[in-house]
Structures are given as C-alpha cells and as structure tokens.
Amino acid sequence: MEKHKCGWCVGDPLYEAYHDEEWGVPVKDDKTLFEFLILETFQAGLSWITILRKRENFRKAFDNFDYKKIANYKQDKIDSLLLDAGIIRNKLKVNSAVTNAKLFMEIQEEFGSFSNYIWRFVDGKPIKSKYKNYKDAPPTTKESDALSKDLKKRGFKFVGSTVMYAHMQATGMVNDHEIGCFRYHEV
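Structure (tokenized):
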C-alpha cells in the first residue's frame, strides 16, 4: 500500500526521498543547520528541486559545508566557485556564503551553538501545523519574520523571511507536512 505524501514532492524520486527522509526532521546539529542555511540562501528566487539536484556539487564546491573553511575563503577560491557550473554561480550569493559563515561562527560564540540561537525562535520545539494541503502553508510567519530581522541585523545576506521559513520547514523547526502525510506524525 502506497503511503500518502505531501503533494509538493510527488512524482520526482529525488524530491520524494528528500521529503521522506529529511524534510521536517528537527535538526540540532550546527553543521547540518549551516548546510541548509547555505542551500536555502542559494535557493532564493529558484525552485528547491534545482538546489537538490545540485546539492552534491555544492558539497564538493563548498568543502562539505565546513563553515570554518568557508569563512576563510580568499578571492581565488571565490573566483573558482563563480566558474563552477555545478552550483548556482551568483556572485552575490557566493560572497554571502563567506559572510554568513563568519557570522554563523559569531553566533556560535555568543550562544554556545547556532542551534541554541535559532531554536529560540520557536521556544526550543517544533511548531506543529495542521494543513490539509501544503498550499495552505504561509510563505512567512511571525517567527520567520523575527528570525530574518535578527539575522539581517547581524549582517547575514539572503535571509529574508520566506527563505528563513523554508529553512525552518526543512530543519524541522516547523512541521508543515500535510496532516494526511505519513510523515506528519513521524517527525
């Protein structure tokens, strides 16, 4: 018997695997939170499936999302990233990855971990939505607005409220699985 899945992922094996295994699972690990942060910032203005299809290329290009290495990228590394057809070659987004890596570590220093910082915006536990259809989920919430505003104040780039809400969904800060989805009660 086939399990019901959220409508947004149905029909693409990569999307379905991502939905079934990762999307909406609470993430507390800083390395994984950073990976999603970088991927979400590159996704701004594009479809998530585009980013998923390039995810392995991003991992290779960005030293497996090692924020300590990324924070120290010099211009020659940035120039090589802008020539890498396997990723999104947007100069502003590539430069923002370096900036955001530096600021990510500042937050770690201030709060003990990025996880401690970001989970404060949902009082440390996932918000469980009750949508019958994924299309009913909003593009932003007061929590994503607050997170976006705080990150921007700290100097982060490409962290608008819509981007941050997608990050919150991906990292399980919000459970936006459709209530009929088999994953709704699992995450």
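The first strand starts at residue 127 and ends at 128. The chain is about 50% helix and 0% strand.
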